[in-house]
## 1
Amino acid sequence: MKQYLINILAILLFSIAFTPVIANPTDSLEAVLPRKWDKRIHQKYEGWERLRPTHVKYQYAGGMGVSAFGIGWDYGKRRQWETDFLVGFLPSKYADKFRLTFTVKQNYIPWSMSFDEHWALEPFYCGLYVTTIAGEEFWKQEPGRYPNRYYNFSTKLRPYIFIGQRINLNLDNNLIKHISLFYEISSCELYIISKITNSSLKMKDILRFSFGAKIQLFKD
Amino acid sequence: MYLTNKLKKYSKYFQLCLSILPLGILTGCDMIEFHPYDLDIDGETGINAKNIKRIESALQGKDAFSFVFISDTQRWYDETEDAVYAINQMENVDFVIHTGDLSDFGLKLEFELQRDILNKLDVPYVCLLGNHDCLATGQDVFRIIFGDENFSFHAGNTHFVCLNTNALEFDYSEAVPDFAYIENDLSNLPAGIARTIVAMHAAPYTEQFNNNIARVFQHYIDEYPSLQFCLAGHTHSLAVEDIFEDGIFYYTAPCIKKRTLLHFIFTPDSYTYETIPY
């Protein structure tokens, strides 16, 4: 339980410490070069309001539990950067007992294609996340009983890389600005190491699908 | 006007894409994973129990048999596949014994992949628990896919005792090695058992073994009828040692990367072994 609290605290502290910096675009609206397809504009908050999350997210699978829910902040001239903090869970059906996961996720969304006032596609985006799982049998560093560097990896922290696509539906709504549905293909570092050292492993063995939704909150 | 028509066309196209998406979910079911250490296992489970039945029924009443001994196949899928191919080419092999470390990181995926490779063997096989197999939820996955960490079976008139000796992994929280299991196994030995072989992952005096009781362990297993030798892995190199200088040899299999199989051949009153590079 103590470990859960420490994890939650660490994520909160991390978010508070970094958000004002990352959510502080020095660029102005005028600096955004017009693009034929890309209609994204970053609508930024001022001062302490920058702490307000710009979106909420839901993700299914992808190594962060059955489901993960989180908040995030976008930044950059065209909102092309997003940082999310997600809390997921693994029910006792899929583990020896109910487990919580905590994930920090960084997304880079370079392009957007706007089709009409409602629909837009983000044809490619990528990023990385680090997910951690609560539970005594998972460790960040080897417990003291082992000789030094006995296993030399962490069972608790799992870094992933991913690529994905998103489709956006803009709503004329006071609370919800737009909804995005996305899917991602991801792999963690241990899977990638296994694939590199074994030609008999197929891409199917190491790639994983996940699905999710983002709800962009309205700036009032 | 032309442009808006074109956009509408694309809009329809993307809606179509979205409707195709669930199809992708169905076809890529094993590509959806909740956590690398979850217990949502795909494919066959209870391997050891099934294969023990096959071994016992095939060798019932026999006093001559042969088996291949491998160990430490973790994250060497290419080499493990080649080993399976090489074993399938051999003649007169009755079963295969794997003394643990199927996984490197204790990941569910590693156990599933190793099982799928070893399932290509023409003969039945049994797997022991290695120290790497205990990492995170590895032991739970091992239990589901393979079975208990202590088990025994008979190959004809020869009794095989497979023991978890990875004491360092359990930090005194469990009895490793489990003398209660050995006592119970000894008292339930069927009549007609003429020889015994003890298999483990980590041999006495490796850093995994509870070395304070190494001699006690040897004393206990010596109670078995006509103990022939012990099998172990863990050190990744081939060795034949009389550890306690009591005439009971410990055969240590090299890791699978070294591409060498150990083949033991039992006749009614003796045994021989050969190393087979492949």
## 2
Amino acid sequence: MDVAEKHPNIEQHLIEQTRKKMIRHAIEKLPEKQRAAVLLHKYQELDYGEISKILECSESALKSLLFRAYETLRVELAPLVAQQAKQ
Amino acid sequence: MSCGRMEKKIMGYVDGRLKEGERLEMEKHLSTCAACRVRVSEFRAVNVLLDELPMIEPSAAFDIRMQARVAAEPAKQSWWAWFAPSPRVALAASMLLLATVWIGSRRPDSPLSAADIEKINQNMSVLENYDVISDFCAAERIAAAGAG
């Protein structure tokens, strides 16, 4: 009996850990302002007006920031994005 | 709508934050543009991937910079705020009012009335010689003169 059979969730757990590490790494690699925009938008759930005040930029500039951040993330996470898009 | 204009709208579309008119315009464009359809699909996939992470706290450095920026922000007051009562000003004004009332209601130090003062003024010539008069003893002087 090998380890995978003994603990059937270990492999799945490792895959999930790797995915999370990749996502976290991709976010950390974003330029600071883009990263802040993503964090405030996605995790703090602030609206565009609030985020643009915090980042001292116009709403239009904020939308461009978020667009560029998502463009970078979709390239950095291409394998995961493709996998996700198929589902 | 062109692909260039999509840039400003795509996040709102993916988040479901577009107004009805904008959403319809976006969908019209997507129905004819395969590249933008792929982009929307992949942005949605990125959104789902970001959901996999537990809430990420901003780094300590970001937090400190943010707090410093908020602290440096001057308090914005409207012109009407000038009329808003400040606790310090209100306290100072009430202290001044109390002091004025207290000073106004205080009795003068002298117990003499105006009539008394008038009488004193009339007899001032006598009072000016009070020391001489009070020291004067005619009997003693006469006795002293008789003995001499």
